[in-house]
Structure formats: C-alpha cells, structure tokens
Automatic annotation (TrEMBL):
It comes from Kineosphaera limosa NBRC 100340. This is Putative GntR family transcriptional regulator. The keyword Transcription regulation applies. It comes from the Bacteria. One of its GO terms (molecular function) is DNA-binding transcription factor activity. Keywords: DNA-binding, Transcription, Transcription regulation.
Length: 221
C-alpha cells in the first residue's frame, strides 16, 4: 500500500473533521466513507489508525468511530487547524511563549557562558542586517536562532523538547510580525534589552526583559 495514498486519505478525512462535519455523530460506515474519500477500505483503515494514534479519533465497539474533543488531540498542527479563530490561535501561542520562554530565560541567565552570549550577539547583528535590507526571511531565521540559544542551553533539556512541536506555528507568527519594518525595529530593541540583561543584570531582569518582548509581540499581532 502506498504511504502517499494513506497520507491523502488522512488529509481528506482531516479536512472534514476540522470542519466539524462529525462533531455530533459517528463517521459513516467504512465502505460509505471509503467511497466518499475515493480510497479503498484498506487505505481508509490505515488513515483511521493514523488519526487514532494522534488522539483525533476513537473507536467505540458496536457504536462506531467518533471524533475526540480537540483537547485530546496530540498533533499541534491539527489543533491549530481546528481553530475557527486564527487570531485567537496566535494569541494562545503567545501565551505558551510567555510561560516557557520567560522561565527558560531565567534558567539560562544562571548558566550562560561568554560563548553563548556572543552567539546571541551574532544573531542580533544578523537581525539588524536583515532589517536594513528588508530581508524578512533572514530576519525571522535570525530571530528564531536568538531564542534557540536560550531554549537549547538553559540547562533543562525538556524545555527545548516541549517547545519543538510548536516551533513551526511560531515561525508563521514571526512572519506575520516580521513583515512590517516598524515591528522589526521594536523587536531588535527588545532583543538587545534581553541580551543586555543577560550580560549585565540578574536572572529576574533577564526574565523581565523577555516578558516585555513577548508582550510587545502580542501587541504587534
């Protein structure tokens, strides 16, 4: 069986799931749903198995296959797709950043080395160069790399591991804000303040600088 066919079946089924088509009823009978998706029953079974693994679907013996509440889904991308309010999704991601990155910054401040701080300085300079030329891609990549230094070197490996699943969604957020020149200028100021606090201040000051940056990002959305 082609993995591509299964992937296509998963995508077709996901489109209908996130549209709320099965919110109050079970999925159609296997043969009927296979016909609707234009796949074989075997391919459909594999697609359902994939979505069961991701917590999207559950099978109740004798009753059928049902869609689980979104809170039970394990795919960050699918949770985002199920949202009917894109702006609210962006705000919720900012909330996650607030919880995780401020704490990670406080931890990082206690173990940051001159080499790591120099690396952050290089990322900040890359942001400035990209801003000067209007290079949004370069700006976003340098921005992400600046934060990665903190997340990956804060002394707790679980932080980066837990952050990784939402990184692609946050990248999309960065493009929303990074496409505007005045927002890039403010972001550079906030990143410079974070780095200055890490070099010269306390862990609490660095944490506060990161919080200020994230709050500014929320306002920029």
């Amino acid at each position: 069986m082609s993995a591509t066919r299964v992937d296509e079946a998963v995508e077709r089924l996901v489109v209908r799931v996130v549209a709320g088509e099965f919110a109050d009823r079970p999925l159609p009978r296997e043969q009927d749903l296979a016909d609707e998706l234009e796949v074989s029953r075997l391919t459909l079974r594999e697609a359902v198995k994939v979505l069961k693994t991701q917590g999207v679907l559950r099978v109740e013996q004798g009753r059928g296959t049902f869609v689980n509440p979104v809170r039970d889904w394990e795919s960050v991308d699918l949770v985002a797709r199920a949202s009917r309010d894109e702006r609210r999704t962006h705000e919720q991601l900012i909330e996650v950043r607030r919880f995780m990155e401020t704490g990670a910054t406080a931890l990082f401040a206690q173990c940051a080395t001159p080499e790591l701080l120099a690396r952050m300085g290089e990322r900040l300079e890359a942001m400035r160069r990209a801003d000067a030329t209007g290079d949004v891609d370069g700006f976003v990549e340098a921005d992400l790399a600046f934060h990665d230094v903190i997340l990956e070197n804060c002394g707790n490996p679980f932080v980066a591991m837990l952050y990784r699943p939402i990184s692609d969604l946050l990248r999309a957020n960065r493009y929303v804000t990074g496409s505007r020149a005045h927002v890039r200028s403010r972001a550079i100021e906030k990143h410079a303040a974070i780095l200055a606090a890490l070099r010269e201040g306390t862990a609490a000051q660095a944490e506060r600088a990161m919080l200020d940056h994230i709050e500014q990002t929320r306002e920029d959305l």
